[in-house]
Amino acid sequence: MEALLRPRPRPINVCKFQSPTARTILRQPRINPSRPLFRISSDSDFHGSLLRIRFSGSPRDLRSHPVAKASDHDPHHHHHYGDDCNRHGGDTKLSGLQRALDKFVRAIGWVNLANLLRDDLQMRWCLAALFLAGAAACPYLIPKPVVKPFQNSLMFLASLESRENNRGQANDGADANDVTARGASSAQPSTEDQGLATSSGYDYEVFLSFKGLDTRSAFTDFLYTSLTKAGIYTFKDDAELRVGEEFASGLLRAINQSKISIPIFSKNYAYSIWCLKELVQMVECQKNGRQKIMPIFYDVAPSEVRYQTGDYAKAFHSHEEKQRYDEETMRQWRAALKEVSFLNGWDLHNMLNRREGTFVEMVTQEVFKELKKANLVVPDSLVSVDDHVDAIVEMIGARTSETRIIGIHGMGGIGKTTIAKIIYNQLSDNFEHCCFLSNIRETSERKGIECLQQQLISNILKTKWIDINNIDDGIKTIKERLSTKKVLLLLDDVDHKKHMAALVGNRDWFGKGSKLIITTRNKEVIKVPEVDGLYEITLMTYDESLQLLSKHAFRRDSPLDEYIDQSNRAIGIAGGLPLTLEVIGSLLYCIDKRDWDATLKMLESVAHDDVQSKLKLSYDALNFRQKRMFLDIACLFIGYDKDILVHFWDESKFFPEVTMKVLQNMSLIKINENNEVWMHDQLRDLGRDIVLKKGDMKIEKQSRVWDPKDGLDFLRRHKGKKKVEALRLKLDHQRQYRFTYEGFESLSDLRFLEVDGLKENFCAEERLLWHELSSSVLSTNKNLDLLPQLRWLSWHDIPLTFNITSFSMEDVVILDLSRSKITHDWEGWNHMEMMKNLKVLNLTDCHCLERTPNLSALVNLERLILRGCSKLVEIDKSICLLKHLVSLDVRDCRHLSRLPEEFGQLIALKELRIDETKIEKIPNGKADPPLGEAWRGCQGMRNLRIFTASNCSSFTLPPTMGDLASLEYLSLKHCKSLKMLPDSIKNLGSLIELDIRKTCIRELPNSIKNLQNLKVVKMTCDSTSKIPDSFWTIEKLEEIEVTRPQVTHPRPTEGFHVEIDNCIHKCQSLRILKMHDAKISAVPQLPKSLVILELESLDMKTFPDLSNLTNLKRLSLKFGPCDVDGPLEEESMPQWIGKLSKLGTLFLDSNNVTTLPMDIILLPRLKYLSISCRNLHCLPSLPVYCPWFCTLNR
């Protein structure tokens, strides 16, 4: 049984932390001091996470406060709940608890409340608890100017609770009086800040590390105050005396999420275990390139820190005497001290005029300058850009000395510029010469490229450079003046190769170690040798979309409960496009709930002007042919197979293959993994809106009518010649339409016709129908030349009486008669000689077709689709005469048992799909092959690239299948008669993906090592399976999936044994490794490239440290079962899990695990946590941003 597990932390007793001020306010004789007043717990809302404080007392408890009583008759205190509460559906009638809270807060006054939170630790505790008790019922109760201090206090409460729970541990004498400080801004970031924190990668700008007894009340306090006044967001831990030695996870996270760390070295600094741990963490962050350390040597010399002499030697001697830390830990402490001592900082100890006030001002100025280096403005409401940022930073080689040029591409409004700015800000600390050229497309159009060249030169040389007469002069100056400068350059919105030639040219234009980032909508622009890598920004997921929408519509991370349905509608409209989410969210903010539906209904029909204008820039950049194809796709062809679609446009006029590539490079379309053309809904709406506007919003003037509901009305109501080029119709018995000669004659420009609906609803005049041997009618039919421009005819369930030759079929290239009742003797087959240009014939789900007609007249046919023809038993041998046939699809033809004997002669064939048929073999090309020569003639099919035979229970592979030298994709899933792969598989040098799941293949041949282009392998194994060592040497492998066998008898509990060879770490392309029910005796070093790792039947004792897998996003580990009859052998989950900073999903399963690593809080991107550990004693703190869940199997 699985149940949702929620943490049950120790309740917080407010009465334990009462200053004199707090005791005055909380003097409540009715409250039992031993009973906690408030309880803090983690809670999960619909799409986010929050900490919730539950009030354990009664409204009467709060109303009894002396201050609350005093405020009853105070005419000077007024509190307005504001429009937010009512606007978002809040109840204006407050509960007794809220009324008591209202009186309590009014008595204090909002103006002084934030100061109380900053200045009085205990007051912060009590007031934050009171605030949350009321805010849970009315989230907008608190005025906006003081929301952030209260939210900060909420996170502060959580950290205090964590420490309170750890008080039972042994105390360290040196740490008992050690206090490092965290001020009002030092608490965990507010909910409002979380989007920025997760997007920019930082919660704080400065982290202060110091020995409390030495500097807390004087120097550190001066420095903190100075930094805060300068607007620098600083972490200073003023919480409480630190007792025990468990390194607070919140403190670790604060270090990780700070841009600058300032350790203040004093005489007793090294006595503090906390300080030393902080320092180690700082050094680690600096090595990762995410932080800068700026040390202050307060009253010790750098050499004393470096070599641990004097007081530092005494401190380490003290640690050694206690014998509480191993040699490795001590070594890390010493190494950190030594490394930091060499860094540029401030030596206050050796200053002649030791004036601390002046010194603090100087430090503040230097810190401010350091932070100011990265000054490109990014939005505060960013969501989940970390993955993009990390991937691009890795591509650009931030920590290498190589010159790198990286191109970022994607559709308009997807966030390219924002992400590029974040990367620029992160890298700018390491560059003296930085330049950001924004809106290059627009600037070059208005002011010329010379202006951009001048700006580049001036910014890098830090002088006004005006001597640029033309583009060539600018190029010459850049090459001469900047070739020795290590620069960081961001070129935004490049849309032409001439921009690249004038601003980037060759990498030797800039000094060694330069980093160039280019953003563009047009991928073609950056597909040049100079660019080292391309990165595409993808659309947001549902969760990310909901969070971004909420930030703009609700000013929080998740929607209000009563707005869930409307929020989902808004997300559907936006389709994961950040620009649209921001526009819609801002549009919906501050409007009444009743207006939401009307606004969303409008946006579902017409995109907002701000979105359309941004997207139309890409459309305007297209030429005439490209625009026509874009509009065709937007109105008609989204979801269609690309290889079929390219035939629609005249190759001599539109160059469809090239144009489709242009549309892809411009991010106007995509080709998905199923080879289907995809277009974003906002771009679709843009295209359709262009068509409507060109037709003056009148359907009779539209060039394309895409809605079948409008099609029949279009024909019925508007007479005369029509300009329509594409028309969709749906036959309807309620609004029946009679097809006439004159009606079709008026559609002389029609290129595309699609008719759908039951043939029973079809009605047409006589001369459009087939007739029995009537010479006069036949003569008339021969003269019919309707739809002379027709290229695509799609008529599902075509009436058998309709004379298809009434249309001009000479130029038809695609004929789709799916779901029709036609048979092999249908009259239309007798006129196929008219369709000499036919490229695609689609007969999907023609359930009355038992055998195919003679197809020899279709000499140019390239694709024949017979999928789902359930009664088909024979394919006419004339198919073997189709020398241009590249694809045959007979999937789900369940009665088809053979192909024509000469089938192997189809030299042009590239794709063959026979899934769910009774076919046992592929003929070898001879009419009467000798026994045992099946497939020997496969050399004739040497161009075959895709072959699928899934669920062909009797299909077998011949020994000579290696003749298929061009084969790239082979699927034999559920072919139960297959027991082995032939050794000739080694000749399939082009094979990329192999799927042999649910077969009886017991082992892979050793020759599989020769498949050096193999990227994906999927298989099912049982207890006798064998994976040869040579398999792990295939260096291009990207995905390995081993699934459980489906058997009727019980599966052996021990699973099957797999030896993973040590050479797997050389597979630097491996991204996915899934091995279910595989008992792995030893897990070797795995490649760093892994993104998904799922392993089962593991041994906790021998499981290695996988902290090197820093790219891991999904981890699932299942450890072997414990002895249920013996004593529980308690184990801890590996600590290294906390180092997997990109981990978003974590599944853990073990009966022996009793504790989870504390470092789990350091996983800033963890969103899903599933635990199946029935003996788990307690949960650690979870990441702030984790909408987590846990499952327990009992």
How would you portray this structure in words?
This protein is an alpha/beta fold and 1194 residues long. The chain contains 35 helices and 42 strands. The strands form nine sheets. It has a 19-stranded parallel sheet. Strands 4, 5, 6, 7, 8 and 9 form a six-stranded parallel sheet that branches. The chain has a five-stranded parallel sheet with strand order 11-12-13-10-14, with helices on both faces. Residues 1-101, 107-125, 131-200, 239-247, 773-783, 929-936 and 1048-1053 have low confidence and may be disordered.
Summarize the structure.
This protein is an alpha/beta fold and 1194 residues long. It is built from 35 helices and 42 strands. The chain has a 19-stranded parallel sheet.
Low-confidence stretches: 1-101, 107-125, 131-200, 239-247, 773-783, 929-936, 1048-1053
Taken as a percent bin, the fraction of beta residues is 5-15%
Q: Give the mean pLDDT.
A: 78
Question: Helix- and strand-based class?
Answer: alpha/beta
Summarize the amount of helix as a percent range: 25-40%
Q: Given the structure, what is the number of helices?
A: 35
Largest sheet: 19 strands, parallel
- The termini sit apart by 5 Å
> Can you count the beta strands?
42
- Rg, nearest Å: 36 Å
Q: What general form does the structure show? A: globular
